[in-house]
């Protein structure tokens, strides 16, 4: 009798736990109950804006009896596997909230479990408390960096020390690609100070950057990392300082003379050698800031690294009136684009910059490709060049055709919930059964194009993983239902998507997600002098590293999520985030080309749309106009002869095409 009571007790306990998970988080039990639902989340209980909610249910078997999750099946096998129709894309010239057509929680919805749990359930005091917690998180990390690490690049938060490039081991790319001996964390954090309205610290930090940071360093860094973390931050802070409206409070700097813009220019000039002597136009991945491309350098680059430079390089060009930077960045995008598969339209993740051969044939949304897609859309939003939107739309369609698996709609229909998998770029065949944590940015991008319903689904999948581990493992194997790579370096992608989904839907569910993220960061990653990388998401052991994106992105998005009245979102579509979370204002100035013609490989159009043939090499010239800023950079400030380096650069590039 006793053992029967024990078994009955255990069964009741399990059912009770199931019920609690379902009611509280919308998360069903994961393993065991639903074999084909690695993480069963309750989003099928949400109603589609156009129709009634599907009945709450567990996974439903697909007709045809295919076994295993439908993510394993190639696209087009069965009713739930046909490539999904992509929602109507924005017309050129229109992007933003106007396209955020789907809003959760329509007025006619009846109460359901989800609504009971979340709707209206986030009181203003709690929101203010969470905003202050996010601010406190930033302040703790920033103050400790300033106290123990500055002027070095990063903070080692466990031992309260600074960290710079690993000179002893040049092959330590994990460190050396990012740390250039240029006070990285301070530079990367500038606009977060402004977004949080801390004008005194912003002003102090800007002055410190101007007075102490130099790029004349014998550091070999990754072009991409230097661009998104440093160049992007300098440009963002420059725009904040010079903004006549000053929405964040007084962020002006007394006697500011465009120093940050000059510094951005200096850095970009030092990165330019990466674009020389490349047969394809795709840049070398690394450059030495003093000496250019190292002789023994690698000819292989990831697509995201080479093809996500256009936002920062384009802003710089347009502010300076110098087409060089945008020209090289755009040429790299187009070179990569032209190497996409004719059959699938997909790109791989690693390419040889001289031969144009794909070394990594994996196509996915995460590492190696993530920001490539992001910058096609964001370049269009910023600069209004139609070709960027066309490329983005075509890429998005290929992603839907080959990467997306699972049922067609997020909220209804049969089959597994949608997931984006990694496939071979030429065949579309599944390459592995993991997704990486970087991919969690994608729902945020989907929000920008109005594909909110799909964004909700993908975000929920990642949130379910977060709920299980209190962090996102770097790689999660959806077939084994377990992490493949266990560390979590304080990445922002999930909170970035959470913030953007909250802005699109205003559904308090996303505030609960943010609160969860905040609380687990506090619980598992806070150490003596900051926040530490999680070495192992299961045993929660830590590593002594706090990457600069923790302050520039993770804390910023968390703060913005809870700061209802922040000018970043109060001003409608005025701001956009770079891939490093730096805010840039979207305004007409950046859509004007300060130079007359814009050079594509075939030629281009002038500002009134008249065709302009591509000029001959000797006709190319650098144009320094002062239309968008008060002065052109003073050449004497730099050790490199600017004009001649441009000319050499352009001659070489043109000669290679
Ligand atoms: C950041 O440096 C940027 O978001 C980049 O695009 C990739 N991811 C890291 C943080 O995870």
Structural features, described:
The chain is built from 21 helices and 22 strands. Helices cover 42% and strands 9% of the residues. A hairpin with a 5-residue loop joins β6 (350-352) and β7. By secondary structure, the chain is mainly alpha-helical. The radius of gyration is 25 Å and the shape is globular. The chain binds 1-deoxymannojirimycin. InterPro entries: 6hp_glycosidase-like_sf (IPR012341), EDEM1/2/3 (IPR044674), Glyco_hydro_47 (IPR001382), Seven-hairpin_glycosidases (IPR036026).
- What multimeric state do the chains show? single chain
> Beta fraction of the residues?
5-15%
Strand line-up across the major sheet: 5-6-7
| Overall spatial form | globular
Active site: 225 (proton donor), 370, 474 (proton donor), 493
Cofactor: Ca(2+)
GO cellular component, one term: endoplasmic reticulum quality control compartment
Family: Belongs to the glycosyl hydrolase 47 family.
Topology, element by element:
Blueprint lengths: L1 H24 L87 H6 L5 H25 L5 E3 L4 E3 L9 H4 L7 H12 L3 H14 L7 E3 H20 L16 H13 L14 E3 L11 E3 H5 L2 H11 L3 H15 L11 E3 L5 E3 L1 E2 L6 H14 L2 H18 E2 L13 E2 L2 E2 L9 E3 L5 H8 L2 H18 L5 E3 L4 E4 L7 H13 L3 H17 E2 L2 E2 L1 E2 L7 E2 L5 H14 L4 H4 L4 E3 L5 E3 L2 H4 L11 E3 L5 E3 L28 H15 L1
Antiparallel strand pairs: 1-2, 3-4, 5-6, 6-7, 8-11, 9-10, 12-13, 13-14, 15-16, 17-18, 19-20, 21-22
Bound molecules: 1-deoxymannojirimycin.
